[in-house]
Amino acid sequence: MNKEFIEALEDLEKEKQISKELLIDAIESALVSAYKKNYGTQQNVRVSIDRESGDIDIFTGRDIVEVVEDDQCQISLEDAREFDPRYEVGDIIEWQVTPKDFGRIAAQTAKQVVVQRIRETERDMVFDDYSQRQGELVTGTVQRISGNTIFVNMGRTEGILSASEQVPGEHYQVNQRIKVYIMDVRRTNKGPQVFLSRSHPSLVRRLFELEVPEIEDGVVEIKNVAREAGSRTKIAVYTEDENVDPVGSCVGPRGTRVQAIVDELGGEKIDIIVWSNDPAELIASVLSPAKVEQVIVSDTEKAATVVVPDYQLSLAIGKEGQNVRLAAKLCGWKIDIKSHTQYYDSEVEEDITEIEETEVSEAPEAAETAEAPEITEIPENEEK
Q: Which of 137, 169, 204, 262 is the most exposed, having the fewest neighbouring CB atoms within 10 Å of its CB?
């Protein structure tokens, strides 16, 4: 060890943000183990590295006791006072035992410790950095493809895009630049692992924040997003500023803003809806592009029956129920869709049933309340 080594540690502190003191402490601990291993001693050993010159001193110590039980680690008070009469029981007496050939072992040990600490510190820094960025949108490059798993280079680390978080129908190539959503960051034995997503609903949210200044400024608020990745997304937006059109802000001049997002998502359809605090109005909007005649809501069950024109029924439900399914996710209500004919025919049937039930229930009652005919007695003389 020498002064150049200390200067190298100081450079590491500036470049890698690793504390010089922590490095020296770690090297001292490693040198204790190295000394005991190479020189076969079980004695108490302490290593001291001069912070200025880099000189190494090794000391072996013994505890001062009344009665010696282990002469490798203990010394009697009487023997200790031969070195210095001021020693008391409980003190430690040390001797310098630095071997002349210890420099090579020290240099090799220090190198291993420094490399290990640099690796651990970089892992910690990467974890801290990306754990704080969890929930953000980042741009990366496809580094390699292993089976159905995509590994994305994000600069300081490699992110994992699993098959379940990919968009159906999307194909990726090595060196392709893609935008991904940081879904989770975990510590592992191999270092921090960053889990990415292309199918998460919040990916669409972050893309709109990126493309629409009004959302980034807080003038327009994204209330909710419902998504079936690769097919369709519904997004509800809201603003308290009467002079701002929230939907128009998201669409952009000639649709440029929303088109940029559609292109990034590979042609995924996007419905932009104005959020409303009135459940009936909101439900009618979220079923867009279908036209709604009537919405009957049940606040207690948080369910709604929606009546649409007969020719709009299939559009309201959507292919394989997608439109109504996304609408229910977006507004958080259970939605039952009926065509005009279905709804009003069922109402007529209910009315007829009620009438029939009423007639049946009233009939016995009328029989019970009907008065019996009066019987007039015939006089005997008239009978004859």
A: 169
Q: Tell me: the pLDDT tens digits for 215-262? A: 999 999 999 999 999 999 999 999 999 999 999 999 999 999 999 999
Name the residue among 210, 316, 217 with its Cα closest to residue 265: 210
Phi, psi of 99 (to 5 degrees): -70, 150
Domain that holds residue 286: 278-352
Considering only residues 206 and 35, tell me which one the structure prediction assigns the higher pLDDT: 206
118 and 21 part of one domain: yes
Identify the residue whose tokens are 């128009």. Answer: 248
Predicted pLDDT of residue 367: 40
Closest CA to 156 of 182, 123, 131: 123
**Residue with the two structure tokens 């600490």:** 117
Reported as a single tens digit per residue, the pLDDT across 188-208 is 888 889 999 999 999 999 999
The answer to whether residue 380 is domain-embedded is: no
> Are residues 11 and 121 both part of a single domain?
yes
| 153 shares a domain with 74 | no
CB-count burial class (<10 Å; 0-12, 13-18, 19+) for 109: buried
Query: In terms of domains, do 21 and 59 share one?
Result: yes
The Cα 76–Cα 291 span in angstroms is 98
320 and 212 share one domain: no
Q: Is the pLDDT of residue 77 over 60?
A: yes
Give the integer Cα–Cα distance in Å for 314 and 323.
10
By three-state DSSP, how is residue 35 classified? helix
* Domain co-membership, 42 together with 122: yes
Q: For the residues of 313-324, what is the DSSP string, one character each? A: HHHHH-GGGHHH
pTM score > 0.85 for this model?
A: no
Per the structure, the count of domains in the chain is 4
Q: What is the CATH number of the domain that holds 300?
A: 3.30.300.20
Instruction: Describe the crossing of helices 3-16 and 20-39 by its angle, rounded to 10 degrees.
Output: 130
